[in-house]
Design brief:
Keywords: ATP-binding, Gluconate utilization, Kinase, Nucleotide-binding, Transferase. By secondary structure, the chain is α/β, with parallel strands linked by helices. It is built from seven helices and five strands, in the order βαβααβαβααβα. The protein has a five-stranded parallel sheet with strand order 2-3-1-4-5, with helices on both faces. The protein is globular and about 40 Å long.
Length: about 180
Amino acid sequence: MVQSLSALVSRRILVMGVSGSGKSMIGARLAKTLGCDFHDGDDFHPQANIDKMSRGEALNDDDRAGWLDRLSELLAEYRDRDDSVVIACSALKGRYRQHLREGGDDKLIALYLDGSYALIHARMSRRSDHFFSSNMLASQFQTLEPPIGGEAFNIDISLSPEGVMDQCLRVVDNSRQPGR
């Protein structure tokens, strides 16, 4: 694994992608490696959103609005303290990512965990400990607006977790958002 000195520089890191892409696992490992806080965006969903997803119903923009506000505020809290943080959040649409960037500022590094529907579906079908069911994955892919124009760094999740971490750490060590 790439050795990182990134903990010496304050930054906000968004680990994004559809459910089942590994956001929570990679985000937690990345935060531990960098010696900073980790927050799973799912922990910030209001109960109504969790209930809706548990029933197999996809969230809409209105459902996500307050949740995204809270995550943007969380990023702003870390920015204002000049502290580093890793947040896992689906950030499926460009406007969601822009809203989060407003909280995280120009030091927000977005890592897009990119994988095929077949790969992620296979992984999700093995999960039993999460409120999001694999049958909702199609709606996530329909909602997904893959990052373009330097919005995020693509991370290939077909690799082992160690390979995914190596990619993430290389990006973080280089520390500049593409196109900036």
